[in-house]
């Protein structure tokens, strides 16, 4: 007796599960402007499309998968373009903000209240020493070139006078260095020219500003003799009494 071989049948796929990935991708694509959800929508959309195409018609929902991909790609593109435009606008605004004269002045004033680190303090000391040598040279040149042998008794006068042959730009640069320096420059005990009772002379000092310069920073001083002295810590008076000559 012939027997008929039974052919197993594939289990039916519930309709609710046939397009589950496609439907989920479509829901996520609506929120594709949130990058993680947009990427998830694209990935699930491609997976759903591949599964539907390889199912041989057993699964449906290809239209949903395609719609999810279109919506997700479109929103991600718009989000990317908007991000680039916004970034450029913010960059231009930030540059304009930093170029503003008032803002720059605020930044400079803020910087001038912040303590310097060890390397910054060392560089500031070197710059102050260089300025002191320049001031001494200006004083000597001014006395030699003046008919009455005058010394300058004001640092601002030293800056505007400058060295012989200095241009306005060089004098302006000197003024900027003095203004930005964490040192205070001053002239005291000044006799501009010889008098009956006193010889011409001056005391020039550079003292560190607090809190910009750390404790124990160098103090510089000099008089009409032209020798630059230095002492660490203390005041300009200590520098004059106990300072060591810088060679």
Short description:
This protein is 56% helix and 12% strand. It is built from nine helices and five strands, in the order H-H-H-H-H-H-H-H-E-E-E-E-H-E.
Key structural traits:
single chain; 247 residues; alpha+beta; 2 domains; 9 helices; 5 strands; 56% helix; 12% strand; rod-shaped
Describe the protein:
- The chain is of the alpha+beta class.
- The protein has two domains: 18-99; 116-245, no CATH class.
- It is built from nine helices and five strands.
- Residues 1-18 have low confidence and may be disordered.
The helix tally amounts to 9
Strand content: 5-15%
Please state the structural category. Answer: alpha+beta
- Low-pLDDT sequence parts: 1-18
Gap between N and C termini, in Å? 125 Å
Q: Mind describing the biggest β-sheet?
A: 5 strands, antiparallel
Number of DSSP strands? 5
The average pLDDT value, as a whole number, equals: 81
Rg calculated over all Cα atoms: 40 Å
Task: Give the helix proportion (percent range).
Answer: 55-70%
Please give the order of strands in the largest beta sheet: 1-2-3-4-5
Taken in chain order, the helices and strands follow as HHHHHHHHEEEEHE
Instruction: Quickly count the domains.
Output: 2
Overall geometric form = rod-shaped
């Amino acid at each position: 007796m012939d027997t008929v071989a039974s052919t197993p049948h594939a289990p039916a796929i519930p309709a609710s599960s046939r397009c589950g990935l496609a439907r989920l991708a479509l829901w996520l694509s609506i929120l594709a402007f949130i990058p993680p959800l947009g990427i998830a929508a694209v990935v699930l959309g491609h997976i759903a499309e591949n599964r539907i195409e390889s199912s041989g018609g057993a699964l449906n929902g290809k239209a949903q998968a395609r719609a999810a991909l279109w919506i997700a790609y479109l929103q991600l593109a718009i989000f990317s373009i908007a991000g680039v435009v916004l970034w450029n606008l913010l960059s231009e605004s930030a540059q304009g903000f930093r170029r503003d004269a008032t803002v720059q002045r605020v930044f400079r004033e803020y910087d001038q209240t912040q303590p310097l680190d060890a390397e910054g303090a060392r560089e500031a000391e070197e710059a102050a020493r260089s300025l002191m040598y320049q001031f001494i040279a200006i004083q000597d040149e001014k006395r030699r070139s003046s008919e009455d042998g005058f010394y300058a008794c004001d640092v601002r006068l030293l800056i505007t006078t400058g060295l012989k042959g200095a241009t306005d730009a060089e004098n302006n640069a000197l003024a900027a260095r003095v203004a930005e320096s964490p040192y205070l420059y001053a002239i005291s005990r000044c006799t501009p020219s010889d008098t009956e009772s006193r010889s011409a002379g001056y005391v020039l000092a550079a003292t560190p500003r607090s809190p910009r310069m750390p404790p124990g920073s160098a103090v510089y001083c000099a008089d009409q003799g032209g020798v630059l002295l230095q002492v660490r810590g203390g005041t300009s008076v200590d520098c004059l009494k106990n300072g060591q000559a810088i060679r």
